[in-house]
Amino acid sequence: MEKKQYKVALIGNPNTGKSSVYNLLTNQNQPVGNFVGVTVDKKKHSILSPKKRDIEIIDFPGTYSIFPQSEDEKVVFDILKDSNHKDFPDIVLFICNSTQIQRNLLLFFQLQQIGLPIVLLLNMTDKLRLMGKQINYQLLQKSLPNCTILPINARLKSDKDIILNSLDNFIENNSFTKTYNTDYLKNLDNQPELKEQDTLDKIYKAKEIESNVIIKNEKDKSSKFTKKLDNILTHKIGGYIILISILFGIFQIIFKLSESPMEWIDSYFSYLSNVLNQTLPPGILTDLIAQGLIPGLGGVLIFIPQIAILFLCIGILEETGYMSRAVFLLDRWMRPLGLSGKSVVPLVSSIGCAIPGILSTRTISGEKNRLISILVAPFMSCSARIPVYTILIAVVIPDVYVLGFINLKGLTLLFLYLLGTFMALFAAWILNLFIKEKNKDIFMLELPFYGLPNLRNLLTTVYIKTKDFVIGAGKIILAISILLWFLASFSPVNDKIENEINHLKSSNLSTKELEYKESSIRLQNSYIGIIGKTIEPAIEPLGYDWKIGIALITSFAAREVFVGTLSTIYSVGEDNEDSLIEKMKNDTRIDGKKVYTLASGMSLMIFYVFAMQCMATLAVVKRETQTWKWPIIQLISMGILAYITSWITFIILK
Amino acid sequence: MLLSELPLGKKAKIKQLTCTDLRLKMIEMGLYEGVEVVKELETLAKGPMAFWVNDYLLSLRYSEAKMVEIELID
What are the strands of the beta sheet with A445-447, ordered from one edge? Predict the structure, then answer.
């Protein structure tokens, strides 16, 4: 009888092109999964086969063996040891790196022993050809009689149909009535000697097959290229210079390339806001949309170019094989800090967003090293801080050049990023003194051959991550903008407002000044004004006024809300078309002094460098450490640190 | 001789693994008795090093490479 849905698992070693196969099969228009773009957890996506079968593709994290050594590898083991698990597959699509048949077949034989039906996809045959080798497919099929073998190239679109057709065939010729030998895993799990013997047996078998089916006929060009490149890129000294230059270069690219698209988006949103203001009938709803929502959303959408380019650069580092070299080069210098070389990936990814960064710590096998990596990752300046830094820099940092050519604004931004990175490393060093080591960290890292990135993978990652950012931030901003707008537009003390305004009108101010004072009185006596005034004493030592206080509070949902909050607060009741930056520059306190000075602006930026203002990250830390203890410690200690350093900054610069 | 002492560019054959906790992972990564390795990369101050193992590049920490006994091949 035909089943309703077939679960097809993608399993294979790391660096076999597994993600490419997943992206090829699913087309990635509507990715499913909790945190997309991260291969440390499984991803799922339903598709229809050519014969209209409902197929659920499950992408598992890459692993060398079924017996796990780190958290990401555990995902595979936990599901396959239980044939009643909801993700236990009906069919395995085993992705095999053709250049590494022996090592790859170990996992293959382990899956076969469980009794899983397997379709073997021989990927990267082009690389094998570059190595001057060929596979004798008939002989390989003879050696592995019970599975379908399919040479593919995951970069070719046409191979999608080949894979899916063979899946259809496979389903038609299979009864799926097998019982599974999951006891194999349970029995071996606690017996190291048996496990070792079993592994060795399978490897010897794989070795024999490899030596039979691989034909060497030409000179190896592929590893020669990698060797030559490694001589430069992982050079004992030069390697570090190149590494720093690459990171610095990425930083430059992000801010240079995104300049013009950001201007386009900015002008589009001002235009949109104006058009709406003029075309919609005047009233509360129009105000809410044109003054609350649109500026709030625009404040964040403007950062799409920067975020997309950032994720593109990180993707290129990973896809080309350079990221592993960075891990290799930095391991020695990360270990005294209680980190592993593998912490480089989470820390660099956290420049994009701490959530995928924290998830990628799962590849670190030492529990202590992993915990420290998780705890310090939020110090890395993530893309949500970009909007905050950019706007504050525009408001308080003068447009001057240091030494004649270094833009002070750019220099400030670089300083903030370096400060975050320094703090991450320093905090790691402190934590290293207090956290006890539970198990030894295993490094053993494959350095893949250098290669050109797969464009489809790159664009998919960039698209998904940017979409995640926009939707995630969009939802929070939408909700908070509406709430803030209401709180800012209504007041419990209307009589008091009218009195004060009447009083103002009797004085001889110009119309413009009158209007300004009037809106300021309305805002200060609104619900939000009253809340803000209540908390003002707590933040006054840092140099902030009550409006910044409100933005600080809403930022604890997510940092980028800062800009949306200020847009909403500043636009309520004011009809002038100044940009937010202009409004912030011109904002004054009651005593006539500017709200945003170098001191208060820098103090605020420092606060954002250190404070743990992201609910989503806290939730992920809780999930990954399995206790509320660590996220709470993060929230409090980073908060205290932020408060103290901002206070000191303000005092020094005042 | 230990794998950690192998000079750059030299080839060696693995005699035995002297660790208990890393054994399985080493075997899975292709390091077991009789396998030939060539040292390809090293870093400063006893940092990680990388070896060609059966046509792929595997990097190990110094402390990990110390757990492998080898025999030099000319």
Answer: A445-447, B56-60, B49-53, B36-42, B11-17, B68-73
